[in-house]
């Protein structure tokens, strides 16, 4: 009866205390550390429960050691001064045995900062509780265990905004009857037949009833990215990516795939906001955290929850720039700061010629959302970018949404393959020395210097076909 009256949180606290009591750690030592860890993890219990509560136990022991040290004790053996029944040696051994036998394949734990003696310590030097300043449905914290890195300078925006000249014409009049489901009601996914909005995805919705991306759709998108040459490509007569604005010349187009789009229901549709075919437009719902990576990649993004395959994470948000504006911005920022542009070229293949003002990109350098922290990983990244049509059928502009490609564990970094061709010798701008750590890392030249971060300015490298990050030819 008493147990039944416990809240979910009480129950979780009780279980955590059970674990620490097993090591004879008194509750009064555990409780403040537990509260602090919960605050750092934005109330998420995934971290605390990780690895059979070893993160919590570790933090309690570390806190105790620190307290002892600050009280002037010269002997800093972990746990030595705990008032426990076991001797310190037994306690430490017990903890080490647990760590060794807990089968810690969880990357989140491996990614915790390691001290020279192998202990993990969670101490954040800097913390922002919500980088979105309340503009998203969820708070997104930023933590830095290292403490030496300057805070990222940018303005958080939750939606794309036209910088200046991009022609983005959104009007209800342009949405034809074939582009919306005016007669639907409630949730389109529970209707007897798929509505007009599912036409884009061959009459089947891209999303499941659980709000995940359909596996078949996800797998096809991945295949297009991995093996672009197996799909039909179209070549521009004058490719915006290959224009050399200085010389007024243009290089050969590498070819563009016509990528698969998700089409979500929107304003003219009869369904409601909770309709299962409106996932991306409802915004971020996962608990995410920006943190400073240990591998030399700068800031990165991680999840605080376990996530199933096909979960929508976030959009890539930035200023909408024309090809010309991006070119000018790249020159202006040259040598100053990294630029983070992503070209909106998913439908360029359907057009033979594109003017500079029609070729658009999203640049998150000055204004962007949490996606500007997503690092690159060669080949086995855990997310994919998928084009999404929402408010306009004009595909010069669309949304870029990130979905998980497999189940992802709490505290794992969320990564994306920028599709950079690191071996393109003809391109004058080298992107960055890749420290992704993947066995199939494509940046072979950096192998000898892995770990020594050489973070070069500017992302744009000549793209491989089907790529997203990258932009203009710069001579
Ligand atoms: C979109 S930003 C990602 C966030 C960035 N790490 C930061 O601190 O703001 C892209 C930049 O991150 C760095 N980066 C991303 N992936 C990397 C990788 N695998 N290895 C090294 N640096 C990487 C590069 O400097 C790149 O220009």
From TrEMBL:
<keyword id="KW-0539">Nucleus</keyword>
<dbReference type="InterPro" id="IPR043017">
    <property type="entry name" value="WIYLD_dom_sf"/>
</dbReference>
<dbReference type="InterPro" id="IPR046341">
    <property type="entry name" value="SET_dom_sf"/>
</dbReference>
<keyword id="KW-0479">Metal-binding</keyword>
<dbReference type="InterPro" id="IPR025776">
    <property type="entry name" value="SUVR4/1/2"/>
</dbReference>
<feature type="domain" description="Pre-SET">
    <location>
        <begin position="180"/>
        <end position="283"/>
    </location>
</feature>
<keyword id="KW-0489">Methyltransferase</keyword>
<protein>
    <recommendedName>
        <fullName>SET domain-containing protein</fullName>
    </recommendedName>
</protein>
<dbReference type="GO" id="GO:0008270">
    <property type="term" value="F:zinc ion binding"/>
</dbReference>
<dbReference type="Pfam" id="PF10440">
    <property type="entry name" value="WIYLD"/>
</dbReference>
<dbReference type="GO" id="GO:0042054">
    <property type="term" value="F:histone methyltransferase activity"/>
</dbReference>
<dbReference type="GO" id="GO:0005694">
    <property type="term" value="C:chromosome"/>
</dbReference>
<feature type="compositionally biased region" description="Polar residues">
    <location>
        <begin position="97"/>
        <end position="117"/>
    </location>
</feature>
<feature type="region of interest" description="Disordered">
    <location>
        <begin position="440"/>
        <end position="475"/>
    </location>
</feature>
<dbReference type="InterPro" id="IPR001214">
    <property type="entry name" value="SET_dom"/>
</dbReference>
<keyword id="KW-0808">Transferase</keyword>
<dbReference type="GO" id="GO:0005634">
    <property type="term" value="C:nucleus"/>
</dbReference>
<dbReference type="InterPro" id="IPR007728">
    <property type="entry name" value="Pre-SET_dom"/>
</dbReference>
<keyword id="KW-0156">Chromatin regulator</keyword>
<feature type="domain" description="SET">
    <location>
        <begin position="286"/>
        <end position="419"/>
    </location>
</feature>
<dbReference type="Pfam" id="PF00856">
    <property type="entry name" value="SET"/>
</dbReference>
<feature type="region of interest" description="Disordered">
    <location>
        <begin position="65"/>
        <end position="128"/>
    </location>
</feature>
<keyword id="KW-0862">Zinc</keyword>
<dbReference type="InterPro" id="IPR018848">
    <property type="entry name" value="WIYLD_domain"/>
</dbReference>
<dbReference type="GO" id="GO:0032259">
    <property type="term" value="P:methylation"/>
</dbReference>
<keyword id="KW-0158">Chromosome</keyword>
